[in-house]
């Protein structure tokens, strides 16, 4: 009996301490949760902000749909399915492809001009005169002579740049590679990556890069397409043999991004969609331009990965690109972004 109040007296401070402990722990957990919520909301807010600020983004659901539709095997498109390129299985074909890719950019400002005119025009020029692309001759072409070579009746888009880049090709080939693009290829020991590095090191016009939010971004569209053209033309043999052809990404031009957008793989902000629909230009090196091009590279790599996961098949970005590009050029109503650029 007498122990009860004593026990009561003893228990009171213990109960108090426990209550205080529970109280402090509770408040601590509450503050922790409140802060965590704050961070979650802050993160969501920032994430939404970033998404809203980006003009292009990759839509995973769109990629899954495309991969499902093609059932793991991409439609095979033959390189030069149109028969528009010069090819004799020798070094002159390499010279032809290098000259072609030095000028493989920006056709859209002349609505009647496209890539085929360039490929066919240069092919005819070479068939007429086998020395037309000798390094010394390349350094002397003028705008009107280039037009004459291509049988184009009016000034070409960015004609001065095209001429300057032809001169650069001639000059650098002569200075470092005995005048021949085939020597350049032979120096790479059948490595696609080395060839891209060598071309961009020696030929400034091929250095397709921009600075995006302070980061230097390299897309190297024309340098990579030169490797792919060799691989396609020589059917992976001789000058077209590359053990690492898988290291080449898609070629970020103005056709493939438009196809990816149509397929639902790329999503544009309404602002960017409006610029494209109204045929307004996007300046070279702008954030929207870099996003659009970089998202295209990323999307094609994701597509490639998903094909591998779903079907176990290893496809090349070059093959995906060729398929997507051929779809795009067969669709004249396709609206693409317009950037005055020497890179694509
Ligand atoms: N991504 C990607 N872009 C490519 C090509 C090619 C040529 N490839 C040929 C070579 C062998 C094959 O058989 C192909 O036929 C040109 N372009 C770009 O397209 C745009 C021109 O469009 P349009 O104005 O409509 O002709 C321009 O930016 C040009 O640089 C490609 O393969 N992939």
From TrEMBL:
GO molecular function: hydrolase activity
TM region(s), chain numbering: 9-33, 39-55
Biological-process GO terms, alphabetical: tRNA modification
Entry keyword Transmembrane helix: yes
Function in brief: Catalyzes the hydrolysis of queuosine 5'-phosphate, releasing the nucleobase queuine (q). Is required for salvage of queuine from exogenous queuosine (Q) that is imported and then converted to queuosine 5'-phosphate intracellularly.
Sequence similarity: Belongs to the QNG1 protein family.
Official protein name in the record: Queuosine 5'-phosphate N-glycosylase/hydrolase
Organism: Citrus clementina
